[in-house]
Write a structure and sequence with these properties.
This protein is α+β, with helices and mostly antiparallel strands and 232 residues long. The protein is built from seven helices and eleven strands. 34% of the residues lie in helices and 21% in strands. A four-stranded antiparallel β-sheet has the order 1-8-3-6. The chain has a four-stranded antiparallel β-sheet with strand order 2-7-4-5. A three-stranded antiparallel β-sheet has the order 9-11-10. The relative contact order is 0.15.
Amino acid sequence: MAAGQANPVAELLEELSPLHVRYARGELICREGTFVAGLQLITQGLVMETCGETAQRAAGGAAELLGAGDVIGPEAVLSVPEELYLSSYRSLTEVHLLFVDQTALNEALANDRHLAATLIGSLSMRHFRLRNALLRSSLAPTARLRSALLDAASISGVTAAEERPVSLPPEIDLRVLGDLARLSPTQVRRGIQELPGVQAQDGQIMLSFEEVLAWRTTSDPDEPSEGLLNDG
């Protein structure tokens, strides 16, 4: 969600007198396998979600970026609620959340169809992004990096500017992009050299939306480009 844009889920949750919670950069918000006490909505900041506590780029590991409007603890709204978090969440920047406990959430969803429908819409968009991330995993490395760059820009609220590059938040560095694209920082650095309109200087990643959007891979998705994978 773009910076400054109203969040309909947040507006509805505010009616339930939620707790306003703040996390400093780098703090663990909740860990996979711990108890789900309720629903948390991100109102400001970036959060890294990981599934599988081994190395994120190892088989079975996954990492996704969440931003304002995304929900932590979607397990809480299942028709048969999960009691344990299926993912871990850590703040990438300073993060502000709205927290509604499970009892209040269940009562509100039972009595407020508008809240239920709005929350379903938000979760559906999250499902759409997860589906795209799954499809991205079959792409060649440079195409995965391109997709991760565009997703990171969108989720962090970066918008296109005419005839000039735009900068990603400094917290989205080579390692974070690597986690999103399932690549090492070295592979990300090499991939940036192959992508037109993208550069990394002094820890800041800049991109031209027009050039990145126009780029199309010529590699077969089943045959990743060899050069990017040579660093082991």
